[in-house]
Amino acid sequence: MMEMNMVQAINAGLHQEMAADPDVVVLGEDVGRVGGVFRVTQGLHEAFGEERVIDTPLNESGILGTAIGMALYGLKPIPEIQFADFIYPGFDQLVSEAAKYRYRSGGEYTVPMVVRTPFGGGIKGGLYHSQSPEALFIHTAGLKVVCPSNPYDAKGLLRASINDPDPVLFFEPKRVYRAVKMEVPTAPYEVPLSQAAVVRPGTDVTVVAWGAMLYEALAAAEQVAGDDQIEAEVIDPRTLWPLDLETILESVRKTGRLVIVHEAPRACGFGAELVSLVCEHAFVHLQAPPRRVTGFDTPFPYALEDDYLPLARRIVPALRETVGF
Predict the structure, then answer these.
(1) Quick one: 297 exposed, middle or buried, by C-beta within 10 A (0-12, 13-18, 19+)?
(2) Average pLDDT value for residue range 168-196
(3) What pTM did the predictor assign?
(4) Closest Cα to residue 182, out of 7, 13, 11, 3?
(5) 233 and 263 in contact (C-beta within 8 Å)?
(6) Quick check: 32 and 62 in contact, CB under 8 A?
(7) How far, in Å, CA of 60 to CA of 2, rounded?
(8) What are phi and psi of 310, to 5 degrees?
(9) In angstroms, what CA-CA distances link 316 with 221, 231, 263?
(10) Are 172 and 133 in contact (CB under 8 A)?
(11) Contact, 245 vs 206, CB < 8 A?
(12) Does residue 80 contact residue 136 with C-beta atoms inside 8 Å?
């Protein structure tokens, strides 16, 4: 075991997977000699050379299209998109090509690639460096969407994603990159996809949050536990799609209440799908209307970042109102 932050854990995972499998390659803008904009790929170029750690032009569509071609020819590419905000020029490659190959080929071809990309706000990145587009890809059949919230999960989920035969969108909360440290195994291990974690047990209300917002949910849960004797059960889905719905339903059946926290805009965010699923499968167990605490339906505001994000001070009233309904 070694204490690592998320950058170090993902970097260690990439080193191990590339050392174990010569088909694993990394490509993207500045991932080689520079080591990535957040230094997640630091040292890979020196260790594995320019044929497996490939600096590309600033062309997200080209990066993702190239990765799809590599995957179809038997490699396991890991393209990096420097910020999730820049994934939109490659959107067509992901939703029209990567997501469809298994279906259009009758299962003859798959696209085993992992698209790594930092996402979310909280680091004063401004309008084009702070967005949370996970719902767009959850909506696309054929893609898997993973979002680790801590270094241990990041390393284990990365290995599971690389070993998955289908394309995976791997969203890394950059606010967490260097803010959280924990003991991480130095040996390879997997955290299975589609398996949620109950991060904080509770009996009064279920809170579902992912990425950096998990820590805001935990802070809010601690505050209402001390001030109001409300025990919130906090769940981290870890894989957003395919979702471990049963863990969430089991919790809601126990608490009778649900609050969802995400920093993406509210309208048609993943929180809306979670509310729908819980109402379909556990409606009779609900004692209060499900609530969402989210970003707003506006472009991400640089000057009002702390007002836009659903920080603990916005989650606490939602917990009190839901339990007091």
Answers:
(1) exposed
(2) 98
(3) 0.97
(4) 3
(5) no
(6) no
(7) 34
(8) -80, 75
(9) 7, 12, 16
(10) no
(11) no
(12) no
Per residue, what are the HEC states of the chain?
CEEECHHHHHHHHHHHHHHHCCCEEEEECCCCCCCCCCCCCCCHHHHHCCCCEEECCCCHHHHHHHHHHHHHCCCEEEEECCCHHHHHHHHHHHHHHHCCHHHHCCCCCCCCCEEEEEECCCCCCCCCCCCCCHHHHHCCCCCEEECCCCHHHHHHHHHHHHCCCCCEEEEEECCCCCCCCEEECCCCCCCCCCCCEEEECCCCEEEEECCCHHHHHHHHHHHHHHHHCCCEEEEECCEEECCCHHHHHHHHHHHCCEEEEEEEECCCCHHHHHHHHHHHHHHHHCCCCCEEEEECCCCCCCCCHHHHCCCHHHHHHHHHHHHCC
Q: Which of 304, 200, 322 is nearest to 260 (CA)?
A: 322
Q: Do the Cβ atoms of 325 and 289 come closer than 8 Å?
A: yes
Instruction: At 89, list the tokens.
Output: 């020029």
Whether cis (ω within 30° of 0) applies to the bond prior to 242 is yes
Q: Are 298 and 250 in contact (CB under 8 A)?
A: no
For the segment 269-290, what is each residue's pLDDT rounded down to a tens digit? 999 999 999 999 999 999 999 9
Token pair recorded at residue 253: 């059946």
- Report how far apart, in Å, the C-alpha atoms of 36 and of each of 99, 127, 206 are: 26, 21, 37
Give the model confidence (pLDDT) of 16-45 as tens digits. 999 999 999 999 999 999 999 999 999 999
What percent of the chain stands above pLDDT 90? 99
Structure tokens given for 235: 């769940």
Residue 281 among the catalytic residues: no
Residues in the chain: 325
From the list 129, 139, 281, 285, the catalytic residue is 129
Q: Which of 116, 111, 114, 115 is nearest to 166 (CA)?
A: 111
